[in-house]
Specification:
- This protein is an alpha+beta fold.
- The chain has a single domain (17-143), classed as Molybdopterin cofactor biosynthesis C (MoaC) domain (Alpha-Beta Plaits, 2-Layer Sandwich), CATH 3.30.70.
- It is built from 4 helices and 5 strands.
- The chain has helices at residues 31-39, 47-60, 62-65, 105-123, and strands spanning 17-28, 74-82, 89-100, 131-141, 148-149.
- A 5-stranded antiparallel β-sheet has the order 2-3-1-4-5, covered by helices on one side.
- A hairpin with a 6-residue loop joins strand 2 and strand 3.
- Helix 2 runs antiparallel to helix 4.
- The mean pLDDT is 94.
Length: 152
Amino acid sequence: MESRQIHMIDVTQKRETQRQAVAKGKLQMKPATLKLIRKGELEKGDVLAVAKTAGIMAAKETHHLIPLCHPLQFTHIAVEFYLPKNGNFVEITASAKGVGKTGFEMEALVAVSVSALTIYDMCKAVDRSMTIGEIRLVRKSGGKSGLYVAGG
């Protein structure tokens, strides 16, 4: 049987460039739950403020969570939310950027994921049927591969 070895990619020879990644995800919920979030009426407090903080913190810790990720030096991390007026979801958008030898895709994806999990945690007492999904990279720039923009 062939031995399968893991290894971190050696980025020593790569050129530092300005890099940015943007990821999105969605948390489906009951419309009543979304109203509670919007009004700030959940027992645990301001759901979106906590979720934003959690997402930013998680992005900065990605290299501790994903074994083969490099630690990165950020110049900016942002987490934003879209709550439709009469909807049943929260859309989460996270962006991570900096100058480095490797991309910020995983950091943006982790920020979205942890923000969604935080919203779930803060709302689960009123809605255990929430689902987290559609987490994806929507844009990345910089590095040898250049610009990527997701289709559709």
